[in-house]
Write a structure and sequence with these properties.
Blueprint (H helix, E strand, L loop, with lengths): L6 E9 L17 E6 L2 E7 L8 E12 L1 E3 L11 H7 L10 H10 L2 H16 L3 E4 L1 E2 L6 H12 L5 E6 L10 H16 L5 E6 L9 H13 L3 E6 L7 H8 L3 E4 L5 H9 L3 E4 L1 H7 L6 H6 L4 E3 L13 H11 L4 H15 L16 E4 L6 H4 L6 E4 L3
Parallel strand pairs: 1-4, 5-6, 7-8, 8-9, 9-10, 10-11, 11-12, 12-13
Antiparallel strand pairs: 1-2, 2-3, 4-14, 14-15
Bound molecules: N-(iminomethyl)-L-glutamic acid and fe (iii) ion.
The site of N-(iminomethyl)-L-glutamic acid has 14 residues, from helix 2.
Enzyme class: hydrolase
Cofactor: Zn(2+); Fe(3+)
Main location: cytoplasm
Length: 390
């Protein structure tokens, strides 16, 4: 392995290490800290006064540094837009997943170059706001060729790719959802699995377009047999089997969690599945926010993600999610920042990101502010960006 120059990072007003061995609280906060980065990993972290010599030096000028945001849920391979649907919702039309079909139409009609440029534009937007890892789902192709294409494109920007052929039943299969599930679990899975790390399903009996418990189970079990990790869209529009199914099958994460019963919370607390909350969705659909406090108090690991997509949340902003989680969901600033970094990493079953201890990947965000608190304290202000170290 080639060894590159070591870079010493100084001038930190605050370091959020997310490593409780390095400093107080779950954020492992350090003041007057310095970091040494070498070969893309954190080689040393400690008090600035004790920093070892390095080849290069970067002074962040009195800013806070934190692990880059881990956005563990996004749908970025699509064409078209649905601002009129958003406007209708703001006049009282509820979201039921029916609008997904219009994005499917536009995506099928689009060439690779259009999809790629849209995807790259949103990923660049994310990086400009401090996100260093993003998960990208398929789910707007819904044919064998279009789903495989979406995942090939997603692989160009991330290793965290998710096959979501079971997003909705496409119009050509209306009334034949069993046949569509057979396609998803058969030829579509075979074509998509080589390009995917994960499989996901929109498990939502409250939507006429999505999948019930038995169909969701069939999709997840087929994905697992094909070697994919499991993720679930669950309990977004109403109560349903998604959360408990996710725990039972050992899914890495169940996402949305807006409508949870006590039994769902108990199941999450006793299992290994992360509850990923997507507050931009409630903001953009006028649904009630999920009760993060109840999950945290029960001991559930919580992640925050954007769900960036043209329907329920066309925002790529993890700082917005942090601010909403604090203001609307009962999370403290510490809990929200942890959920947007280490929580997202847990939802992707990654321990090399989401913290800045020695050996972690040097994927960092820097704030134009002295403290992580400013993410919720100064909402809507572009404070965060990724910290690039050569
Ligand atoms: O996570 N709920 C299902 N899928 C997306 C929305 C997709 C869309 O409306 O285009 C979500 O909210
Ligand atoms: Fe989603």
């Amino acid at each position: 392995m080639t060894t590159h120059a070591a870079t010493l990072i100084t001038g930190l007003a605050e370091l959020v290490s997310n490593d409780p061995e390095l400093g107080p609280g779950p954020l492992g906060l350090m003041r007057d800290a310095a970091l040494v980065v070498q070969d893309g990993t954190i080689a040393w972290v400690g008090p600035a006064g004790a920093a070892p010599p390095a080849d290069e030096r970067v002074d962040v000028g009195g800013r806070a540094v934190l692990p880059g945001f881990v956005d563990s849920h996004a749908h970025l391979v699509f064409a078209g837009e649905r601002s009129a649907e958003f406007e209708a919702r703001m006049s009282g039309v509820p979201y039921d997943g029916g609008g997904i079909a219009s994005t499917v139409r536009a995506t099928r009609d689009a060439g690779d170059e259009l999809l790629r440029s849209q995807l790259q534009r949103v990923v660049a937007e994310m990086r400009a706001q401090g996100t260093t890892t993003v998960e990208v789902k398929s789910g707007y192709g819904l044919t064998v060729a279009d789903e495989a294409r979406a995942l090939r494109l997603a692989r160009e920007v991330t290793v965290e790719t998710t096959f979501l052929g079971a997003h909705v039943v496409p119009p050509e299969y209306a009334g034949r959802s069993d046949e569509y599930v057979a396609l998803v679990t058969g030829p579509m899975l075979a074509a998509c699995a080589p390009h995917a790390r994960w499989i996901d399903v929109f498990c939502e009996p409250a939507s006429p377009h999505a999948f019930d418990g038995p169909a969701s189970r069939a999709v997840l079990e087929a994905g697992r047999a094909a070697g994919l990790g499991l993720r679930v869209h669950g309990n977004q529009l109403g109560p349903g089997p998604g959360a408990q199914l996710a725990v039972e099958l050992g899914a890495a994460s169940v996402d949305h969690c807006t409508f949870l019963s006590d039994a769902d919370v108990d199941a999450l607390a006793s299992g290994q599945t992360v509850a990923t909350l997507l507050p931009g969705v409630e903001f953009s659909t006028r649904q009630p926010y999920p009760d993060a406090r109840r999950l945290l108090d029960a001991g559930v690991t919580v992640a925050l993600a954007t769900d960036c997509n043209p329907g329920t949340c066309f925002s790529s902003s993890m700082p917005l999610c942090v601010a909403l989680a604090v203001r609307e969901m009962g999370m403290t600033p510490v809990e929200a920042v942890l959920a947007a970094t280490r929580g997202g990493a847990a939802a992707l079953r990654r321990d090399d990101i989401g913290h800045l201890g020695v050996g972690a990947r040097a994927e960092m965000a820097v704030l134009d502010a002295p403290s992580y608190r400013y993410l919720a304290y100064r909402p809507g202000v572009p404070l965060a960006r990724t910290l690039e170290v050569a």
